[in-house]
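Folded chain entry —
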Amino acid sequence: MQKLVDLLVDRLKSVQEIMPWDMEEIMKKNPDVLVLDVRERDEFDTMHVTDSLNVPRGIVESACEWGYEETEPELVQAREREVIIVCRSGYRSVLTAFNLQLLGFKKVYSLSTGLRGYNDYELPFVDIEEQPVDIQIADAFFVNKILSYQLAPKNK
């Protein structure tokens, strides 16, 4: 049985990761880049990168094809565009990038460190109303919130 870390390591063999400063540079050089946020809608609504497209990880494969209830035309038509996939920590984005490449996307990047690292680099976020998010609010949102019951039991 593989663990998540094993799956991610395997997928990273064919997925190109970029750092937040690389993302900033790509966005400056290419205004046509698509930033695809694969977090859940409530995460996205709280704060996100300006002009990013939210398609939750659970529906992204059908969202990038015509003829599904989840179809997102901008995503369907982005196979030749640069696409930067983002999530909270960089795990969902790796898995999504791998699958999008299988589905014919040519220039796909996964944001290493996720939006946590983007925040650490102090790049801006906006809220559901496209208003800037204060850096302290972003810091609190991205703090690690693992609860004790989510940790593996200690060996006796």
User: Anything to note?
Assistant: The chain has a mean pLDDT of 95. Helices lie at 4-11, 20-29, 41-46, 60-63, 73-76, 91-102, 114-120, 135-142. Residues 91-102 form the longest helix (12 residues). The chain has one domain: 4-150.
